[in-house]
Design goal:
The protein has 15 helices and three strands. It has 405 residues and is mainly α. Strands 1-2-3 form a three-stranded antiparallel beta sheet. It is globular, with a radius of gyration of 22 Å. 46% of the residues are buried.
Length: 405
């Protein structure tokens, strides 16, 4: 039995591969399933909006996938040291995009989140800003790791200042889903960096208090929270999206209604191919299909954390903390989207990474996966003694990768 288990572990291992095969498998599987489900979920609304062309959104999604794969290939060729040296410039890019979207952004459903662009339609500023913030924070933690662990000012106050500015800009759009994701990812990165526990608890309490204040500041936000507790009480008003999503889950049962046989996508469930694509998947593929997709996301996030941990042990703190940040962002977005679609969380407009229709989210998610692959590749080369960037200083894994960031 022991020999058989050892052989199974060896077969499933990716140690001898040039890159983490399980990460690539999970990402590609989610991409393919997402394309199929976007095609199914958008067929009716596409036919109605574009003179009988049932595959308009599917074709655009396919183009976004192609662009995302090209962007991922280009990103994979960029060494992590290049991102590290430009981490502050990336932060500035994130701020510029969040300011520009407030000035020239296209308003959709009462929110300015998109910067208009030719051909692809536009870019969602918050999607790029998330990655920019993660890069800057990874560089900050790389440079000041000892001070971060020793001082609350360096460990919490200073790294949270850019976050607070971004939250302010996001609140003006408004985009509270991205605020939650950014805040959670930053707090997770700081916790993994080893900040003082008491300071982290104070920060967490402040975040909860700030979130509660934002929730009750506007009547429509408070209505969302109260509706979430009993959506059926306002099923034709504020609870309409959630009740229709729950009906989709109920119709799916164990094995689903069959691919393409969703009823809720027939103009009952709003945003069926974007924010609520998981509800359509649950209706058509049932509990089995929904569980399989959740399992793929769990595998993706697990491998991302594993890659980041290996980078930390190899003495590459910038790569490690950026990997942690990407894992936290992807995990938070997937958890919130699936939680909203299944009624576990209040309604919030966030796409499902690598699955939902939307160019910005899809392309940025592909870039994030490529960065994880690059981190993994560099760690494997370093541990095998083939990397030209091998450390010659003998510093511990807690030291920085370089003086510049």
């Amino acid at each position: 039995m022991g020999d058989k288990a050892s052989r199974v572990r060896q077969t499933m291992s990716t140690e001898q591969q040039p890159v983490d095969g399980w990460l690539v498998f999970a990402a590609l599987a989610i991409l393919c399933i997402g394309w199929v489900m976007v095609t199914s979920a958008s067929s009716e609304i596409s036919s109605e909006r574009f003179d009988g062309n049932a595959f308009y959104y599917s074709m655009r999604h396919g183009i976004f996938i192609l662009i995302g794969l090209v962007a991922a290939y280009c990103t994979l060729r960029i060494p992590m040291s290049a991102w590290q040296q430009r981490s502050f410039a990336m932060l500035m890019l994130g701020f510029v995009l969040l300011v520009v979207v407030l000035v020239v952004g296209r308003e959709i459903n009462g929110a300015k989140r998109w910067i208009p662009l030719p051909v692809i339609g536009g870019v969602q500023a918050s999607e790029v800003a998330k990655l920019c913030l993660m890069m800057w924070l990874a560089g900050y933690l790389d440079r000041r790791l000892d001070k971060v662990r020793a001082s609350v000012v360096n460990g919490l106050v200073l790294p949270c200042m850019p976050l607070m500015l971004m939250i302010l800009l996001l609140a003006l759009e408004p985009d509270f889903g991205s605020i939650v994701v950014m805040g959670g990812a930053v707090m997770g990165m700081l916790l993994l960096a080893g900040v003082a526990w008491w300071g982290f608890i104070v920060l967490l309490a402040a975040a909860i208090g700030g979130g509660w204040s934002l929730a009750i500041a506007e009547p429509y936000r408070w209505e969302r929270l109260t509706t979430y507790t009993d959506p059926w009480a306002n099923m034709y008003d504020s609870g309409y999206q959630l009740t229709q999503a729950l009906i989709a889950f109920g119709r799916g049962h164990l094995s689903g209604m069959g691919l393409g046989n969703s009823v809720q996508k027939l103009f009952y469930l709003p945003e069926a191919h974007t924010d609520f694509v998981f509800a359509v998947l649950a209706e058509e593929l049932g509990l089995i299909g929904a569980t399989a997709v959740v399992g793929l996301f769990a595998l993706l996030i697990y491998r991302a954390f594993k890659i980041a941990r290996r980078a930390e042990l190899a003495g590459l703190p910038f790569s490690a903390y950026l990997g942690y940040g990407i894992a936290l962002v992807l995990g938070a977005q997937a958890f919130i989207n699936i939680g909203v679609a299944s009624g576990l969380l209040p309604t919030k407009g966030l796409t499902l990474p690598l699955m939902s229709y939307g160019g910005s989210s899809l392309i940025v998610s592909c870039i994030q996966i490529a960065i994880l692959m690059r981190i993994d590749t560099e760690v494997r080369l370093l541990t095998r003694g083939k990397s030209p960037a091998r450390r010659k200083t003998g510093k511990s894994p807690e030291t920085t990768q370089g003086a510049k960031a």
